[in-house]
Every structure is written in C-alpha cells, then in structure tokens.
Design brief:
heterodimer, A: mainly beta, four-stranded antiparallel sheet, B: mainly beta, six-stranded mixed sheet, five-stranded antiparallel sheet
C-alpha cells in the first residue's frame, strides 16, 4: 500500500512551458486535492475532486487545470508556466469530506 | 487579516522541554481542528484531530481548542530531537476545504 504518490519529485521549467504533475492514490479514496505550499504562507487549495469526473476550483486555481478520469489518478496541468508558480505542490486524498487527508511527498517546481 | 494566524517561529528548545504551539482564527464557523507535522522535504501527516472545544491527549501530544476565544494549541511533552519538524494547524467548517496556518518550525536540541 503506497498511499499517495507524486511524480516528478523535482522539475525546472522555463517561462511559457507546460507540464503535468502526476498524482496517484491506491486507497480507493473518493476525494482528492491539489495544494501549493509557499514559504510562510501555509498550504493553499488549487483544485479538488469529489469523485471520478467531478472537479472544482479551490482558492488559487488560476493558471492550472485538472481532470479526474479514474478514482486513482488526479493530474494537475500547468499550461503556460510563470515564475509565480514556483512552489511545492502536494496532492492529497481522503475517503470522505470529513476524513483525514493523506498527503503525497510533494513536487518541487521552479519556473525560470 | 488571514483566516488562520500561526507564528512561524522558529522555535528552538532543549530535549525534554515542553513545546507550546498555537493558532488563532477568525471564522467562527470552523468546527474541526487539526495539527499536521511536516518533516523537511516531506508531505504533511496528521498528528491530532479534534472537534469542538476541549482537550484531547495522545501520548506526549495534547491538543486544546477554545472556540470562544478562537484559539487552538498543541503541546508536546518530553520533546525529542525526532519532534523537530514544522507543525501546521488546519481547520474546516462542514466541508472538506482545509484552511492552514503558515506553520511553526520547531527544533529540539539534543
């Protein structure tokens, strides 16, 4: 049981490039989340999903897109990378909305 | 004003000391309160989960919630070097959107 896995661990992008951050969970959780963590700012919710085919915006969705075609996977897409998107990105999942959220190890992204 | 305020520290204590961490919040609708521990370059992991005002104890950890003052605390007794981490408070209303504090970095010196 691997829990929540994220790839890649690190990435450097040039301004304007695009990429997809991968997130997979093997706990059969319905709810999945993407957060970004900036120094001194705590975690901010980017997007979330309550099940396959259902996604919605969080607090800071601009510049990102998501999809949820299966229960296990919840990829986050950056279409035109900007320096403001330099951050650490965490994916999380939970069984129900009130349950514990389990976090992945994170992806460190730098946009230059 | 941030919805959740947490002093980022850093906090440095000798081994065996009591670590005291706290957060204040402005949204009176928050009902569920959590403390997450985050080791360097790792994802957060849930440490304590409380609902409503009062105390909850789990081993060396005690979480306190005072909803009338909009104030929550985490105490770590007999602190160990392995407790060195960043501690994040988090809270939510009746939905699944967590509001996090900025995190307090704690170092326990051997």
């Amino acid at each position: 049981n691997a829990g929540v896995t994220q790839t890649p661990k690190f990435r450097i992008l040039k301004i304007g490039q695009s990429m997809t951050l991968q997130c997979t969970q093997d706990m059969n959780h319905n709810y999945m989340y993407w957060y970004r963590q900036d120094p001194g700012m705590g975690l901010k919710l980017i997007y979330y999903s309550v099940g396959a085919g259902i996604t919605d915006k969080g607090e800071v969705p601009n510049g990102y897109n998501v999809s949820r075609s299966t229960t296990e996977d919840f990829p986050l897409r950056l279409e035109l990378a900007a320096p403001s998107q330099t951050s650490v990105y965490f994916c999380a999942s939970s069984q129900t909305r009130a349950d514990t959220q389990y976090f992945g190890p994170g992806t460190r992204l730098t946009v230059l | 004003q941030k919805e959740v305020e947490q002093d980022p520290g850093p906090l440095s204590v000798p081994e065996g000391a009591i670590v005291s961490l706290n957060c204040t919040y402005s949204n009176s609708a928050f009902q569920y309160f959590m403390w997450y521990r985050q080791y360097s370059r790792k994802g957060p992991e849930l440490l304590m989960y409380t609902y409503s005002s009062g105390n909850k104890e789990d081993g060396r950890f005690t979480a306190q919630v005072d909803k009338s003052s909009k104030y929550i605390s985490l105490f770590i007794r007999d602190s160990q070097p392995s407790d060195s981490a960043t501690y994040l408070c988090a809270m939510t209303t009746n939905d699944y959107k967590l509001s996090f504090g900025a995190g307090t970095t704690v170092t326990v010196r051997a």
